[in-house]
## 1
Amino acid sequence: MSFFADNPRGHPYIRVMASSSEHLTVFRPGRNLAQTIHEDPLAQFLSGQLTERTKKAYYADLCEFFNGDRIGPDDVRAVSFADIIDYRNTLASMGRKRTTINRKLSSLKAFFKMMVAAGLIDKNPADSSLVKGYRVDDTLSGKALRKSDLQKILDTAAAEPDDLRSSRDLAILHLLTFAGLRRSELAGMKWADLTQEGVFHILQLPETKSGVAQDVKLQPIVLQYLQAYRETLERYGYPLTGIVFVSLSRNDSHGQPITPQSINLIAKRYARLAGITRSVTAHMFRHTCCTLSIEGGAKPQQVQAHLRHKDLKTTMLYYENRERLTDNASDYIHIKG
């Protein structure tokens, strides 16, 4: 059963939702997929997603747009590109970030694309040729930390008086910087995921954004901080099985697996204590990993493989931005006398 509360602004699309998807139809072998999509479009769209995280994100976005999770064929057919534009503009009027609005539009585009493929509708009302997203103003260079700021954050974590917290957070910050991990990947790390292939130390990621298992090479400095954290855990009597990073909060979550949000708060805390005025997030360390790799001479394909970018275009944005600065037109201007 789903329960929906009207948004205070009263817009028909925007609702506050608390629901489950237990009723959704499950596709069974032998049934016609197109027919099943006609019966329960949302369930079949979600069943095609690779990870639970992606399913949850799509589920939330689509339920918000359709005012619930009981979406029938008539609901899908009734949507026009004008409805999508109205939804986009409403989100903007509510003060939603441009990145959030664009992500929600992408969810709708993917959903309706599948409905077109299944023959439920003829044209995608959320297609980018009909509905434009918002240009994100953040520059690539602004998403990465300066080396000086990064060092300040690491120094501040090293000066943390609680040695257990310090050892944990230093391991987290070095993994973010050198391994370029996403918060969810770091929060889900298990000690059993740390392995060795020949002379190389590897972190195995069984669940990733792409939906397939992936490996990440760990540098000696990362292993050093992981080992220091492990020894500190052992000294304080914490179990060394299961999840690597645990909560040290003084509440019921103490000793439980750390959350992705807590990892973000750790990055913000040390940035604030280090006197860094700009807003810092855990994801900025991933951008920093990319930028520092390119500055060090890594090829775009190497960076793509390390950060597990699905599309080389994502990596090339950083590479081309760095090339624009290192071999700039202004470098060729020379004025004598």
Note: The CA atoms of residues 9 and 94 lie 8 Å apart.
## 2
Amino acid sequence: MIVASRIRIAILIITVSVLSVLFPKLLAGEGRAVIRCVEDFSSFKAGTFPLGWKSRGGDGSDVYTVRSDHEGYLEAKATRSAVTIAKEFEYDLKEYPFLSWQWRVLELPKGGDERYKRTGDSAAGIYVIFQGYFRPDNIKYVWSASLPVGTTTQSPYNSRTKIVVLRNQSSPLGGWVSEKVNVYNDYKRLFGQEPRRVKAIAIMSDSDDTQSVAIAHYRRICISKD
């Protein structure tokens, strides 16, 4: 019994030693993480505006609020408004080509159609913003109120912003939906060239053009190697 016990202890020690060497390598590629979190909103107090995010087009705290339901998430409630919030997060798209997140939409902007200025509202949108001097390139992934899933177009406000429709009015509302996109491939397809480094990730739910309301939630925004 003593011998058997010593053998089990020896096997356990060897197993722990092997895992201590291999486990970090499984999670990292030569010192670089396989997955990096841009934001999960769990580190912020519920009812606050997330630190580290900057607003454009108005006061972000009027539209975006951290909430918690066993897990932190960001609530966007846009009432006839168009406020974008962004977090600086620089990285090489060749190294981390994938972007993933979860979102859910509770209310679509009535009559929203991203192709035109008079209707250019999205229930939910995630931007990837690239480095640039004057008008940087952007890819905006949207939950549209009307356009078919798979539609690609450009913003009527900025020709350097390409729009990709992932969900629309036919997608179920009120439940979390997981997304994962290959931003590197999308950039090459949409712009026809190699991308610059990513500068920031942004969020926008808007309803100013349609003078209506858009409500959406966001969480678990991450980049990954595969």
Note: The two ends are 48 Å apart (CA to CA).
## 3
Amino acid sequence: MARNLPPLNALKAFEAAARHESFTAAAAELNVTHAAISRHIRALEGGLAIKLFLRTGRGVVLTEGGKNYAADVTRAFDLLAAATENASGRRRRRRQQLTVSVESSFAALWLVPRLGRFTAANSEIELIVESTDRLADFARNEADVGIRYGRGVWSNVAADLLARTHMAPVCSPALLRTANVRSPRDLPPGLLLQEEPRRYWKEWLQAAGVAERVSPEGPTLGLHLTISAAEAGQGFALADEVIAGDALVGGRLVRPFDVAIESYAYYFVRAAERKESRAMAALHAWLKSEIADTLDAVARVTRASSSAFSDKT
């Protein structure tokens, strides 16, 4: 008996769009254009004579009919995938994709150099790192989880503390020897490297009690670029122990002062209503352990360098 089936490409487009509730994400997964996904969905809706998605100002949402159809289509694709694996004579273990949204500075300076350890220990997880300074919108499935830096207050987000940090000036050892900086009041305004969004220096200078005396006049760069500039002896950057950790441990940067901003921390975040999956839990535990190791290593070297600097002054 002949089966009445829609085109396979239309079904694939619908199943991906339904899973993500996003035409954009479906297009990225299937490596086609957004217009192609829209065209397939319209054709499928016309053939079925039902509405599968409602278009809203924030994207698309499944109708009740769409939800029911998506559940059946997904099960059918799962059965096809299993049948194909059985026919090939090998059952491959599925790798679970996990998309994590992180700030560019955290990704470049801390996460990427350590990713090999996570993937080696969690071969069943395919980690997709999206480096962006814009907060991911979990309601639109822009990411599964994220790592955010702040005070831990975000709407509609479950935020689990990874580590509290201390933000303080860092500079190259060579600059510290030549700049004649013995206290915060000696900081040259033109050598204060400003990070976007240019709020941290103001907070730190107030904490150090020199906000009326010292005002940053150095160039404004992305946070990871201020670290590179500081390593090159171009000035003083503000950074916490995680972002500057490897450079501090490697002796490329030092912390000349004990004064620090302590109101910020790193958080592991996800949509408030979403339960933590096994892959999420694995990444969460790994991050907490690795960051703790970084903080321990930095604490040892900063104590030693602070003592040496105090002896000289």
Note: The domain at 168-260+299-312 is CATH 3.40.190.10 (D-Maltodextrin-Binding Protein; domain 2).
## 4
Amino acid sequence: MTNGALAGLRVLDLSRILAGPTCTQLLGDLGAEVIKIENPKTGGDDTRAWGPPFVQGADGEPTDLSAYFMCANRNKLSVAVDIATSEGQETIRALAMQCDVLIENFKPGGLAKYGLDADQLLAANPGLVYASISGFGQTGPNAHKPGYDLMAQGYGGIMSLTGDADGLPMKTGVAVADVMCGMYAAVGILAALRHRDQTGEGQHIDIALVDTQVSWLINQGVNYLTTGDVPQRRGNAHPNIVPYQVFATKDGHVIIAVGNDSQFQRFCQFLGVAALADDAQYATNPARLQNRDDLMAVLVPMLGALTTQDIITGLEAVQVPVGPVNTLDQVFGTDQVRARDMIATMPMQGAKEGAVKLIGNPLKFSKTPVTYRHAPPRFGQDTSDVLARLQQKP
């Protein structure tokens, strides 16, 4: 029994791919029991086949554990149930009666034909928190359209802001629309559970990839709403702060994030151009923003003549925010990542290496730490145990 903050909660996970699984993995890390329902006709979650790379079994052959699947499916029990059958539907209904949370990402209305939609399950279990993730939400003219991370990034505007000014609109390097939707879903579920605990009332949470994508436009979105001006792509430059971007160096790249005018003065002193900070064109951030191109014409060649480490060492000494652009081998090789336990090594029976490495949970609790209890499961491995324990037929 875990002492996690959500210990004692049971989650029925009918989701797949990334947004829903990200949410339920987080709930599992916090101590909830997560029962992942997978379709026996398809071999389970689609992402099991999204490789290579795959975990190698003891026989040296690839397993059904792709790295993509493992990134969002630890701390879960895999149960194979075909909800297209009457027996499968009855199993899910019976499980839902014993769960606190159900999360699904079928097309809006897709579970109604099986008797597993929010209205029917909430009528049977009024305390259930039922969360539905979809591309565009349960309402609106686009509700019927499928949702994928790339489509959400495009529709929700983030791609129009990402990439070089003269280049193509760019998606982010990871499926961040899915991930952020999963994070919002977890927050919504926790809020609904607090309401349930106070009132006994469950509820239906409707969360959409596109809605969450729009919500995290943050300052760029409010810039537009305030002015009516459509923001343009600026590559790695910041729309409201200068200089705050990536610069090429003599041997690589460096991030410099000058957040206020006093930092800019110290930055200029480091470069040996202290007078630049007193120039009316650059003395304040609004002035630097207005004269960005002229300032870059001065800074870019100066920084390009220095090594990355010289810049980092020099600016850290004068307390100007600066940092490297790490590749992933550098990220996971840093003392900081190790000190913060951001690599989770989990034992796994039947794996060639005997264990798998996953990305750790970033939440650090003083009383109820996250726990890593179950490695990402093989397809259907827990079906008999879970259904027998919850008095269901396997």
Note: The radius of gyration is 25 Å.
